[in-house]
Amino acid sequence: MAKKNFLNIELDPKYVPKKSEKYMCPEHLAYFYRVLLAQREELLSDRDDVLNDVRMAEKSENAGVGDEQDQASAEQEITMNLRMSERTDNLLKKINAAIERIENGTYGYSVISGDEIGLQRMLARPLATMTIEEQEEYEQKRK
To answer: Domain coordinates of the chain in residue numbers?
Structure first.
């Protein structure tokens, strides 16, 4: 029998993974894959808007429009938008890594121990890469 491919599964729009289903079965993977793709598309759209804002602010700054206060505000806006773009890029990397884990069959399992992360945690944080215990230990070590 051919293995079910998560990419070919038609999910009900109201589908949410259940604990009663086998952990990270094709339906779960299809669900998380679609969630992550939607997040990625939204971020890409937002990033384009932010970069357009930066370009517009740079144009007005370079054109010497406004007084010193206006120019300082424009610089501050450029800096803020560039930081936001950087955070977006970091989040996109995490989303792409999660999609790659779905494709290679390691999604939903800890990158440290290989243990199941848990369905509730994955639903709350689809980018999770560690169990709650491992995450807490990691956070303590960082302090």
So the answer is: 24-107, 108-143
Q: Which residue has the tokens 């610089």?
A: 75
- In tens, the pLDDT along 88-128 reads 999 999 999 999 999 999 999 999 999 999 999 999 999 99
3 state DSSP class of 54? helix
Q: Count of residues for the chain?
A: 143
Give, in degrees to the nearest 5, the angle at Cα 135 between 132 and 139: 140
pLDDT at 72: 76
d(CA 73, CA 66): 10
Look up the CATH superfamily of 24-107. DksA, coiled-coil domain (1.20.120.910)
- Collapse the DSSP code of 109 into the 3-class scheme (helix H, G, I; strand E, B; otherwise coil) and give the result: strand
Rounded to 10°, the helix 68-104/26-62 angle is 160
E strand or H helix that includes residue 40? helix 26-62
User: Cα angle at 64 between 58 and 67, to 5 degrees?
Assistant: 110
